[in-house]
Amino acid sequence: MPIGKVANYFEERGFGFIAPDDGSAHIFVHVSHIANADVLKKDQSVSFEYASDARTGKPRADRVRVI
């Protein structure tokens, strides 16, 4: 499972972006794909899986877990 840090998270809007530790591009995360928390905080370490958004086809984070 890839690991990264929360780059930013907009609690009122329910989404944000994760900066993967491998230096790849930031990846979108939606509140509905967070497994063990209600919200994320900037600079939290998280593990996640890569998935593709069914509606847009763009990459997103799935099964996001605060570590």
Q: TL;DR?
A:
The chain is mostly beta strands. It is built from no helices and five strands. Helices cover 0% and strands 51% of the residues.
Structural topology:
Blueprint (H helix, E strand, L loop, with lengths): L2 E8 L4 E6 L6 E4 L14 E8 L6 E8 L1
Antiparallel strand pairs: 1-2, 1-4, 2-3, 4-5
Can you walk through the features of this model?
- The chain is an all-beta fold and 67 residues long.
- The chain has a single domain (3-66), classed as Nucleic acid-binding proteins (OB fold (Dihydrolipoamide Acetyltransferase, E2P), Beta Barrel), CATH 2.40.50.140.
- It is 0% helix and 51% strand.
- It is built from no helices and five strands.
- It has strands at residues 3-10, 15-20, 27-30, 45-52, 59-66.
- Strands 3-2-1-4-5 form a five-stranded antiparallel β-sheet, with no helix packed on it.
- The chain is globular, with a radius of gyration of 11 Å.
Descriptive tags:
globular
> Rough shape?
globular
The average pLDDT score comes to: 96
Share in β-strands: over 45%
Low-confidence stretches: none
What is the correct CATH architecture?
Answer: Beta Barrel
Number of strands: 5
Major sheet description: 5 strands, antiparallel
What structural class do helix, strand and pairing data support? Answer: mainly beta
User: Number of domains in the coordinates?
Assistant: 1
| CATH fold group | OB fold (Dihydrolipoamide Acetyltransferase, E2P)
Distance between the termini: 12 Å
Name the CATH superfamily assignment. Nucleic acid-binding proteins
Radius of gyration: 11 Å
Task: Give the ordered list of helices and strands.
Answer: EEEEE
Query: What's the helix count?
Result: 0
Strand order of the largest sheet: 3-2-1-4-5
Helix content: under 10%
CATH class equals: Mainly Beta
